[in-house]
Amino acid sequence: MQNIKDLTIAEIVAKDFRTSDVFRKHQIDFCCGGKISLLDAKQQYGIEPETLFNEITEVLNSSASTAHAYNDWELDFLADFIERTHHQFVRKEIPVLEAYLSKIADVHGDNHPELHEVKSLFHASANALLDHLEEEENLLFPKIRLLVKAGKPENGVKPEQLDQTIIKLVGEHETEGDRFKEIAKLTAQYSIPEDACNTYMVAISKLDAFEKDLHQHIHLENNILFPKAIALESLILP
Protein backbone atom coordinates (compact mmCIF):
# COMPACT_ATOMS: atom_id res chain seq x y z
CA MET A 1 0.00 0.00 0.00
CA GLN A 2 1.31 3.47 -0.85
CA ASN A 3 2.14 5.82 2.02
CA ILE A 4 -0.82 5.57 4.38
CA LYS A 5 -0.42 9.17 5.51
CA ASP A 6 -1.06 10.35 1.93
CA LEU A 7 -4.36 8.48 1.65
CA THR A 8 -7.84 9.29 2.88
CA ILE A 9 -9.47 6.93 5.36
CA ALA A 10 -11.82 5.75 2.61
CA GLU A 11 -8.86 4.93 0.35
CA ILE A 12 -7.10 3.02 3.14
CA VAL A 13 -10.16 0.85 3.75
CA ALA A 14 -10.77 0.42 0.02
CA LYS A 15 -7.26 -0.98 -0.41
CA ASP A 16 -7.58 -3.39 2.55
CA PHE A 17 -10.91 -3.81 4.28
CA ARG A 18 -9.23 -5.32 7.35
CA THR A 19 -8.23 -1.78 8.34
CA SER A 20 -11.90 -0.93 8.90
CA ASP A 21 -11.60 -2.57 12.33
CA VAL A 22 -9.13 0.14 13.38
CA PHE A 23 -11.57 2.89 12.47
CA ARG A 24 -14.51 1.09 14.09
CA LYS A 25 -12.50 0.74 17.28
CA HIS A 26 -12.07 4.52 17.45
CA GLN A 27 -15.65 5.18 16.24
CA ILE A 28 -14.37 6.89 13.08
CA ASP A 29 -16.79 6.94 10.15
CA PHE A 30 -14.99 5.31 7.22
CA CYS A 31 -17.96 4.90 4.88
CA CYS A 32 -19.86 8.20 4.64
CA GLY A 33 -17.22 10.37 6.30
CA GLY A 34 -14.13 8.68 4.94
CA LYS A 35 -12.89 11.45 2.65
CA ILE A 36 -10.51 12.74 5.32
CA SER A 37 -6.86 12.07 6.11
CA LEU A 38 -5.45 10.62 9.32
CA LEU A 39 -4.40 14.16 10.25
CA ASP A 40 -7.96 15.42 9.71
CA ALA A 41 -9.18 12.61 11.97
CA LYS A 42 -7.28 14.19 14.86
CA GLN A 43 -9.23 17.41 14.47
CA GLN A 44 -12.57 15.65 14.02
CA TYR A 45 -12.25 12.71 16.43
CA GLY A 46 -9.32 13.62 18.69
CA ILE A 47 -7.27 10.56 17.72
CA GLU A 48 -3.56 11.02 17.13
CA PRO A 49 -2.56 10.20 13.52
CA GLU A 50 0.45 8.24 14.77
CA THR A 51 -1.85 5.99 16.82
CA LEU A 52 -3.96 5.23 13.77
CA PHE A 53 -0.89 4.81 11.56
CA ASN A 54 0.68 2.28 13.95
CA GLU A 55 -2.53 0.27 14.33
CA ILE A 56 -3.14 0.24 10.57
CA THR A 57 0.44 -0.84 9.93
CA GLU A 58 0.02 -3.67 12.43
CA VAL A 59 -3.09 -4.86 10.61
CA LEU A 60 -1.38 -4.66 7.22
CA ASN A 61 1.65 -6.56 8.49
CA SER A 62 -0.45 -9.33 10.02
CA SER A 63 -1.02 -12.60 8.21
CA ALA A 64 -3.06 -12.21 5.06
CA SER A 65 -6.69 -13.04 5.60
CA THR A 66 -9.31 -14.40 3.25
CA ALA A 67 -10.88 -10.93 2.96
CA HIS A 68 -12.10 -10.13 -0.52
CA ALA A 69 -10.03 -7.79 -2.70
CA TYR A 70 -13.06 -5.61 -3.49
CA ASN A 71 -10.96 -2.85 -5.00
CA ASP A 72 -9.71 -5.21 -7.72
CA TRP A 73 -13.10 -6.51 -8.83
CA GLU A 74 -14.85 -5.59 -12.08
CA LEU A 75 -17.66 -3.12 -11.37
CA ASP A 76 -20.46 -5.36 -12.62
CA PHE A 77 -19.18 -8.19 -10.40
CA LEU A 78 -19.00 -5.84 -7.40
CA ALA A 79 -22.55 -4.63 -8.04
CA ASP A 80 -23.72 -8.25 -8.18
CA PHE A 81 -21.91 -8.99 -4.91
CA ILE A 82 -23.45 -6.00 -3.12
CA GLU A 83 -26.92 -6.96 -4.33
CA ARG A 84 -26.66 -10.64 -3.48
CA THR A 85 -24.86 -10.19 -0.16
CA HIS A 86 -25.69 -6.86 1.48
CA HIS A 87 -29.08 -6.22 -0.09
CA GLN A 88 -30.26 -9.70 0.80
CA PHE A 89 -28.94 -9.27 4.35
CA VAL A 90 -30.87 -6.01 4.79
CA ARG A 91 -34.10 -7.53 3.51
CA LYS A 92 -33.70 -10.64 5.67
CA GLU A 93 -32.81 -8.82 8.89
CA ILE A 94 -35.29 -5.94 8.80
CA PRO A 95 -38.44 -7.90 9.75
CA VAL A 96 -36.54 -9.87 12.39
CA LEU A 97 -35.11 -6.75 13.99
CA GLU A 98 -38.39 -4.86 13.86
CA ALA A 99 -40.06 -7.70 15.78
CA TYR A 100 -37.26 -7.84 18.36
CA LEU A 101 -37.12 -4.08 18.87
CA SER A 102 -40.88 -3.84 19.21
CA LYS A 103 -40.88 -6.58 21.84
CA ILE A 104 -38.07 -5.18 23.99
CA ALA A 105 -39.52 -1.66 23.79
CA ASP A 106 -42.82 -3.02 25.10
CA VAL A 107 -41.21 -5.09 27.87
CA HIS A 108 -38.24 -2.91 28.90
CA GLY A 109 -39.37 0.52 27.73
CA ASP A 110 -40.24 1.76 31.21
CA ASN A 111 -36.72 1.14 32.50
CA HIS A 112 -35.04 1.94 29.19
CA PRO A 113 -37.13 4.65 27.48
CA GLU A 114 -34.44 5.07 24.82
CA LEU A 115 -35.67 1.79 23.31
CA HIS A 116 -38.78 3.51 21.99
CA GLU A 117 -36.62 5.97 20.06
CA VAL A 118 -34.32 3.19 18.86
CA LYS A 119 -37.38 1.31 17.58
CA SER A 120 -38.66 4.44 15.81
CA LEU A 121 -35.28 5.27 14.26
CA PHE A 122 -34.79 1.74 12.99
CA HIS A 123 -38.29 1.63 11.52
CA ALA A 124 -37.64 4.88 9.62
CA SER A 125 -34.28 3.56 8.44
CA ALA A 126 -35.79 0.25 7.37
CA ASN A 127 -38.42 1.93 5.18
CA ALA A 128 -35.86 4.26 3.61
CA LEU A 129 -33.37 1.45 3.00
CA LEU A 130 -35.90 -0.79 1.28
CA ASP A 131 -36.77 2.03 -1.16
CA HIS A 132 -33.06 2.76 -1.58
CA LEU A 133 -32.27 -0.86 -2.48
CA GLU A 134 -35.03 -0.86 -5.10
CA GLU A 135 -33.59 2.24 -6.75
CA GLU A 136 -30.10 0.76 -6.83
CA GLU A 137 -31.27 -2.58 -8.22
CA ASN A 138 -33.73 -1.21 -10.76
CA LEU A 139 -31.97 1.98 -11.85
CA LEU A 140 -28.30 2.36 -10.92
CA PHE A 141 -26.85 -1.14 -10.99
CA PRO A 142 -28.27 -1.95 -14.46
CA LYS A 143 -26.68 1.29 -15.73
CA ILE A 144 -23.33 0.31 -14.19
CA ARG A 145 -23.51 -3.10 -15.86
CA LEU A 146 -24.30 -1.37 -19.13
CA LEU A 147 -21.36 0.97 -18.54
CA VAL A 148 -19.01 -1.99 -18.15
CA LYS A 149 -20.28 -3.41 -21.45
CA ALA A 150 -19.82 -0.01 -23.09
CA GLY A 151 -16.19 -0.07 -21.97
CA LYS A 152 -15.66 -3.01 -24.31
CA PRO A 153 -15.65 -1.56 -27.86
CA GLU A 154 -17.05 -4.69 -29.47
CA ASN A 155 -20.37 -4.20 -27.64
CA GLY A 156 -21.20 -0.80 -29.11
CA VAL A 157 -23.33 0.04 -26.05
CA LYS A 158 -23.92 3.63 -24.88
CA PRO A 159 -24.92 3.96 -21.19
CA GLU A 160 -26.88 6.72 -19.50
CA GLN A 161 -25.16 9.22 -17.24
CA LEU A 162 -24.87 8.25 -13.58
CA ASP A 163 -23.73 11.30 -11.65
CA GLN A 164 -27.09 12.71 -10.50
CA THR A 165 -28.38 9.30 -9.44
CA ILE A 166 -25.19 8.66 -7.48
CA ILE A 167 -25.32 12.07 -5.77
CA LYS A 168 -28.86 11.27 -4.60
CA LEU A 169 -27.92 7.81 -3.34
CA VAL A 170 -24.84 9.08 -1.49
CA GLY A 171 -27.07 11.62 0.25
CA GLU A 172 -29.37 8.79 1.34
CA HIS A 173 -26.35 6.87 2.64
CA GLU A 174 -25.41 9.86 4.78
CA THR A 175 -28.93 10.06 6.17
CA GLU A 176 -28.89 6.42 7.23
CA GLY A 177 -25.35 6.73 8.55
CA ASP A 178 -26.47 9.61 10.77
CA ARG A 179 -29.51 7.65 11.88
CA PHE A 180 -27.37 4.73 12.99
CA LYS A 181 -24.95 7.03 14.78
CA GLU A 182 -27.92 8.14 16.87
CA ILE A 183 -28.97 4.52 17.47
CA ALA A 184 -25.42 3.67 18.57
CA LYS A 185 -25.40 6.66 20.91
CA LEU A 186 -28.77 5.75 22.43
CA THR A 187 -27.62 2.18 23.07
CA ALA A 188 -24.22 3.24 24.45
CA GLN A 189 -22.51 1.67 21.43
CA TYR A 190 -24.71 -1.43 21.62
CA SER A 191 -24.01 -2.18 25.27
CA ILE A 192 -26.08 -4.82 27.05
CA PRO A 193 -27.59 -3.55 30.35
CA GLU A 194 -27.53 -5.73 33.46
CA ASP A 195 -31.30 -6.24 33.46
CA ALA A 196 -31.40 -7.41 29.82
CA CYS A 197 -33.25 -10.62 29.04
CA ASN A 198 -32.15 -12.99 26.27
CA THR A 199 -34.41 -11.26 23.73
CA TYR A 200 -32.89 -7.89 24.65
CA MET A 201 -29.36 -9.27 24.24
CA VAL A 202 -30.16 -10.82 20.87
CA ALA A 203 -31.88 -7.63 19.65
CA ILE A 204 -28.91 -5.40 20.52
CA SER A 205 -26.40 -7.87 19.10
CA LYS A 206 -28.34 -8.12 15.84
CA LEU A 207 -28.67 -4.33 15.69
CA ASP A 208 -24.89 -4.02 16.10
CA ALA A 209 -24.35 -6.58 13.32
CA PHE A 210 -26.81 -4.72 11.09
CA GLU A 211 -24.87 -1.48 11.50
CA LYS A 212 -21.53 -3.20 10.79
CA ASP A 213 -22.94 -4.71 7.60
CA LEU A 214 -24.42 -1.35 6.61
CA HIS A 215 -21.03 0.32 7.07
CA GLN A 216 -19.37 -2.21 4.78
CA HIS A 217 -22.24 -1.96 2.30
CA ILE A 218 -22.05 1.85 2.13
CA HIS A 219 -18.24 1.78 2.00
CA LEU A 220 -18.25 -0.54 -1.02
CA GLU A 221 -20.62 1.78 -2.85
CA ASN A 222 -19.40 5.23 -1.78
CA ASN A 223 -15.67 4.53 -1.89
CA ILE A 224 -15.27 1.91 -4.62
CA LEU A 225 -18.28 1.25 -6.86
CA PHE A 226 -19.59 4.79 -7.33
CA PRO A 227 -16.30 6.67 -7.91
CA LYS A 228 -15.02 3.97 -10.25
CA ALA A 229 -18.28 3.99 -12.19
CA ILE A 230 -18.05 7.77 -12.60
CA ALA A 231 -14.40 7.47 -13.67
CA LEU A 232 -15.27 4.80 -16.22
CA GLU A 233 -18.18 6.89 -17.45
CA SER A 234 -15.86 9.86 -18.04
CA LEU A 235 -13.73 7.71 -20.35
CA ILE A 236 -16.69 6.52 -22.39
CA LEU A 237 -19.18 9.39 -22.62
CA PRO A 238 -18.33 12.61 -24.48
Quick rundown:
The protein has 238 residues and is mainly alpha-helical. The chain folds into two domains: 4-61, SP0561-like; 72-236, no CATH class.
How is this structure best described in words?
The protein is mostly helical and 238 residues long. It folds into two domains: 4-61, Orthogonal Bundle (SP0561-like), CATH 1.10.3910; 72-236, no CATH class. It contains eight helices and no strands. α5 packs antiparallel against α6 (114-150).
Q: What's the layout of helices and strands?
A:
Blueprint: H1 9-15, H2 20-25, H3 38-45, H4 49-61, H5 75-108, H6 114-150, H7 163-186, H8 198-236
Salient structural properties:
238 residues, mainly alpha, 2 domains, 8 helices, 71% helix
Helix coverage percent: over 70%
C-alpha end-to-end distance: 33 Å
Radius of gyration: 19 Å
Task: Tell me the domain tally.
Answer: 2
How large is the share of residues in beta strands? under 5%
The helix tally amounts to 8
Order of helices and strands: HHHHHHHH
